[in-house]
Amino acid sequence: MLLKPTTFLQHFRRKTILLNLFLLLLIFSYQKTYSQEDSEWLHYKPKQSTQAEKKVVLISGDEEYRSEETLPMLAKILTTHHGFETVVLFAIDPKTKIIDPNNQNNIPGLHHLADADLMIIATRFRELPDHQMKHIDNYLTKGKPVIGLRTSTHAFNYAKDNTSPYRHYSFNHKGGAWDGGFGRLILGETWINHHGDHGKEGTRGLINGLEVVNKNPILQGVTDIWGPTDVYGINSQLKDATILLYGQSTDGMSAQSPISWKKTILPVAWTKPYKIPNGTTGKVFATTMGAATDFVSDDFRRLIINACLWSLDLSHLITNETNIEYVAPYKPTMFGFGSFKKGLKPKDYQ
Hints:
Layout: H1 5-38, E1 41-44, E2 55-61, H2 67-80, E3 85-89, E4 118-123, H3 130-141, E5 146-149, H4 181-187, E6 202-207, H5 209-213, E7 226-227, E8 242-250, E9 266-274, E10 282-287, H6 298-311
Parallel strand pairs: 2-3, 2-4, 4-5, 5-10
Antiparallel strand pairs: 1-3, 6-7, 6-8, 8-9, 9-10
């Protein structure tokens, strides 16, 4: 039976409306699923491909120095100004999906390390499950570059009764190749102590003049660094390390505070090679500075951006004018236990 033209049009419109509604529901469902899947981390992609085409994974997770604020800021600079794909990971409460730096057992998204070109880590005393730690271990086995900030010298802490195959990553592991854990084997040093008076003294950066003469690219354009975090203790000889920056304690916590001449200077930033057993040799930039408040210093921020380019074999892109400007307003929280902003999800740092 043939339909009348008007009936046919009505029937066609109804079909079209139903089809459009179905497509809208499908798109909404996809967006919702994608949003839920990606809500535990941030993922930035450059608007245009660049000659770099590198992927950087930034891992936050410390109770005191606000790495959950620092690393999104750094990621935005690296993506917007330098064309890198970046992924920022957080310590997440698995029930609420809220950022909780005090949760030492969950950092979702570490699978992004599988195709990463650089890992930036700023964790403290984490005891991650095996299915998460395997991604870090696989990355290091390949000898890919690492940048360690502040508490990454004691990035992991496994209980004595823990049977994890990754328990040797613990900062206080004793004996063998992994003596001193991830901190000493990979970065050059584990947790020792506060050489400076914590909460009362800051750090004045003293640039290694020899490296300036040698035109070390990481120091390009870096002239003046001060941060309110104190100098960390260093026991080891930092074998095979190139010292870029020494730290001198300041008698007070402002950039104008005088030098505390009673305290010796200690290395606070260096590069070195690393190699885990049965792994490939890689390279490291490490600094015991790196609280969120330290990144207010333009030159410290420049030091880290330069280190990223160096790590990715892009030192030829480093100039005195390398862009280190904030992409969004950055007003970091002062370091301290329990001082993190409560109730936030990764999207709140978007």
